[in-house]
Design brief:
The complex is a heterodimer of chains A (about 190) and B (about 230). Chain A is mainly α and about 190 residues long. Chain A has helices at about 1-5, 10-20, 25-40, 45-60, 75-90, 115-130, 135-150, 155-160, 165-185. Chain B is mostly helical and about 230 residues long. In chain B, helix 1 (about 5-20) packs parallel to helix 2 (about 30-45) and helix 5 (about 125-140) packs across helix 6. The chains are: A mainly alpha (about 190), B mainly alpha (about 230).
Chain lengths: ~190, ~230
Amino acid sequence: LQAVAAGGMTDNASIDAGLGLDFGELFRTYQPRIYNYFRCRVQSQEDAEDLTGQTFERAYMHRGKFDAAKGTFAAWLYSIAHNILANYYRTHQRRSTYEAEGGLPADLMTSVSPPETQVIQAETISRLLRNLRHLNERDQEVITLKFAGQLSNKDIGQVMRLKEKTVSVVLWRAMQRLHRQLEEDAT
Amino acid sequence: VNEQQLADLFSKRVDHLLGGESLPRSEVPESLQQILSLAKDMSQVQFQASPAAQAAFQAQLDDWFGPTAGPTASRPKFGRWDMLSGKVVALFISITVALVTTLATIIVAIVVIVKGVISGPPPQTPIPTLTGIPSVTAEPALTPTVAPTGILTPTATVSPTLPSTIDTVEAITVVVTVELGVDDLVPGLPPGGEGGQDDDRCCGDHDRGHGNDPDHHDEDNPGQGHH
């Protein structure tokens, strides 16, 4: 269970160690990461919290359908979150942007560092989030699942229905586009 | 190095980064180095739900899985055998308390009985009280003598009890005798004999009425016997 919670890059055997024994502990472990995933994709903090609640409610209702032989618990849980986010976008017909906020989100965690370093770090993160929204849906999703969700390429492939090798290339290209986007934003 | 190899190397470095490991100082292409720096910035983006949302989520987990799903909730340290031994100890204590209570009750009862035997029958205080009431109204001077009278009362109570029992036994005997009949008790008499001349011999005079009595005494008309 600790291996599952640590990085999400685990195999089925690690999931089996905790499967069925304590879903509550799994939910509690993954809750911050699921919220982080939604928060990087939607502008409203309240919406992210609501989507997180919906994800775990659906996971709880369908927890009997989880099959460790078909994939990890993380891949199963993020597949639910991925579908809930798609429904959210269909309902709201919009994409969130950070331009309207004009500042750093209040729920963004800052590292323990000197104040001047925190300011630079906050500006960097704000730019990242703002330019991330200019990427296409697929690039946003693969970057968010990798960094906010901390999933392995194999798990990302299961969520996005891609091969593991394909995920590597998709992620690499998405990060290159984000880098170019940041350079254009700086100029 | 083709794109796939570069992409795989990048993913491997990112996994090390997300796992908290430091990136190894090895020769990598310039393009990869820039993207890895961007990945390091992305890994620092961490949002945290509001305390209210976290509390609501924890409450939901408690509702689904019980209070033990909480991060601060400690699991019981007692194993199955510890719980079983605890129950055995509790049962032993309960039985011990019950035995001690029973023994104490028995001892108290024995002490009371022994004291009663040694000191004789307890004084019957209600009897002097009842007898004292009329004596007070009728003869106030006799009131001080109520106590000796009360002491003698048990003797007076026992005396009528024994004869009454004996009377009962005698009454039963009499009843049995009557039911058996005279013929069954006196040998030599024919069973079922009734009336006729034989009745006069065994039972004395019976009024045959209207002057035919052998003893010349008419019980139906006393004082008018034949002479």
